[in-house]
Design a protein that fits this description.
The chain has helices at 15-23, 46-51, 60-69, 91-101, 106-123, and strands at residues 3-9, 29-35, 54-57, 77-79. Helices cover 44% and strands 17% of the residues.
Length: 124
């Protein structure tokens, strides 16, 4: 059975979308992303929170927003502490996401290996 993962940031433009792009299509994972602002591309709702097995919030404010909607989600939220200073698919953002998620998802280790291999091939 697949692990259902929800990535949450403010606007669902850069951080959570990048994480979704990185992990989407991975075997054993179902992935979605959303934002907390009313202007978010895809806004977090109770259905998403209930759906998710793991929720990765980019900042503590995002966790607080989720808990306002569903206090029972406490045990499935991990705050990554990734500030909103990156653009979508920024290589530095991707590295930070992988580093922060690696202790929580095996797929992060796999992606790191793949990226390292690609970088080595480019260097040859």
């Amino acid at each position: 059975m697949a692990v259902k993962v929800l990535f949450v940031c403010s606007a669902n433009v850069s951080r959570s979308r990048t994480a979704e792009d990185m992990f989407k299509g991975r075997e054993g994972l179902e992935v979605k992303s959303a934002g907390t602002r009313w202007t978010a591309r895809n806004r977090v709702n109770e259905e998403m929170i209930d759906w998710a097995d793991k929720i990765f919030a980019m900042e503590k404010d995002h966790k607080d927003y989720i808990l306002e909607k569903n206090p029972e989600a406490e045990n499935k939220i991990v705050v990554l502490d990734i500030p909103d200073v990156y653009g979508r698919r920024d290589p530095q953002l991707m590295e930070v996401i992988l580093m922060k998620i690696e202790p929580h998802l095996e797929a992060a280790r796999e992606i790191k290996k793949e990226m390292k291999s690609l970088n080595e091939q480019k260097g040859q």
